[in-house]
Amino acid sequence: MLVNNAGGVWTRRQLTAQGFEQTFGVNHLGHFLLTALLLERIKASAPARIINVSSAGHHMAWGGMRFR
Predict the structure, then answer these.
(1) Does the global pTM surpass 0.85?
(2) For residue 23, what are the contacts with CB-CB under 8 A and spacing of at least 6?
């Protein structure tokens, strides 16, 4: 079983080492890469599951994300 779970939020705009916006890189691209790297092993371990967890935390940003 692979459980993808992250919930990083930064108060100012930052970039990952690869040049992606930090929140997007941590919360989305990281899961995608890890899952892609493990996919063949997960398939070989059948029955296996991949679980993606998210939150409703974006509802807390009533005024949007202000990167200053």
Answers:
(1) no
(2) 8, 9, 10, 65
SS3 letters across the chain: CEEECCCCCCCCCCECCCCCEHHHHHHHHHHHHHHHHHHHHHHHCCCCCEEECCCCHHHHCCCCCCCC
Query: What would the two tokens of residue 49 be?
Result: 């599951």
Cα separation, 41 vs 27, in Å, equals: 23
Other C-beta atoms lying within 10 Å of the C-beta of residue 63 = 5
Report whether 50 contacts 42 (CB < 8 A): yes
The tens-digit pLDDT sequence of the chain (68 residues) is 999 988 777 778 899 899 999 988 888 898 999 999 999 999 999 999 998 887 766 666 666 666 55
